[in-house]
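Journal club prep — side note

Before the paper discussion, L.F. wants everyone to see what a predicted structure for a comparable chain looks like in token form. Sequence:
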Amino acid sequence: MRRALGSVRARATLGATLVVAVALVAAGTAVLLSLWSNLSGQASTQAERTARAVAADLAAGTAYDQLSLDDDDRPVQVVDAAGRLVAASEDLERISGTGVGAVRPQAVTGDTGSSESTDDDSLSDGEIDDDVSFTDGSATVDGDDADYRFAAVRVEADGRGTLTVYAGAPLSAEQGAVSTALTVMLIGFPLLLGVVAGVTWLVTRRALRPVEGIRAEMAEITASEDLARRVPVPDTHDEVARLARTTNETLAALEASVERQRRFVADASHELRSPIASLRTQLEVGAAHPELLDVEGAVEDTVRLQRLAADLLLLARLDAGERPADARFDLAELVREQVEGRVGVTIESQVSVEAAGSRGQLGRLLANLLDNAQRHARSAVTVAVRREGERVVVEVADDGDGVPEADRERVFERFVRLDDARSRDDGGAGLGLAIARDVAVRHGGTLTVREARTGGALFELRLPVAQARSPRVGLAGRADAVRPGGATCPGRPVPPRGADR
């Protein structure tokens, strides 16, 4: 039961049925009240008409025994100012609701004799009061019991004082109509609710059928681990179709991520195998023939292996979504630190601009760009720092051969080295520029490459300018500067051996 009510279709059906039920009850109640009010108003009008007709006869001087009180079997009473019943319907057997329970007139002295009258009577002889009052009651007329609406009208009869005429109109028609309407509602409403529930169930099932198809396909994809499969997209333009398209986009992104991870693992294992094998060979030769041990080569392979491991660890942290620190620092000063000690690298222009993020990671980014530029430059590398609106721009240009336009995006892919830099002895593992772009993107910036004025490559880094300094940022900035994103030392840059092109 709980599982059935837990489905969207069951909840939608139950909700729609409850809403319609509440609406039907409210509408039915309003209809019954309106019907009863209208029919009761008709009964009141009939009772008042009868009472005024009898009052008119009394005002005209008609004797009590000559009044027409037996029309339509409606109960009528005429009561004098003393509360005595002086005239009544002939077949009246019982009455309630008028205040006078007598059904047989009391004898009076003289038909036209003067009866006692109240002192506050404001009616003149033969005048009928405009005011009328209504009460509900019951009466037995000629053996038939029924409920009545009674109208009370006062009249001043000549010589008989103030008389009150009570006339009733039956409520049987009103009660029958309300009872019939209530019966129809009690029978019709459940049927209508059943129809609403059935239609809602069928419509909801049809609407949710594509969702069930998406769920089933996702379950099969999970079981088979085949991320190349896609969920069916219904031929509609509703939320379900958008859900299916978004799901397929998510699957495509997941497939690309998994494929990139697989290539990363494969390329990493391939790149690690070469220095490890070379280092092992040299050590084995040195162990067998110490005089042949190439210590310098072993150190180079060890340093290369260390750099590759550091690059892989940084990429792993970036892929895991590691957020950069919120330190504030002068980017121009960081550029000067990275340029210091590099042969052939000059700073053309610089403007002090404060940036935010990880000082170590941005230092690694600049170091990778400078390493790449030094490797491919013929004689000179230039660096410029300027501000453009809310962005700080750092340009690293060389006078080498440049990057072909067709390869200007490919150079930022991992483990990619262009044809003229495939040598692992002279070049890096193809991670430097990939790391640089990842760091730039995670700091809210961009990294692109185009042709420099000298014909070489110009790498342009754009980062957002830091907002107003927060009081609690300074300590974090110093802490980040001590440990610059995994580098062994924040001061002196790594020698230019990590080129990617």
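L.F.'s comment for the group: The mean pLDDT is 81. Keep this in mind when we get to the figures.
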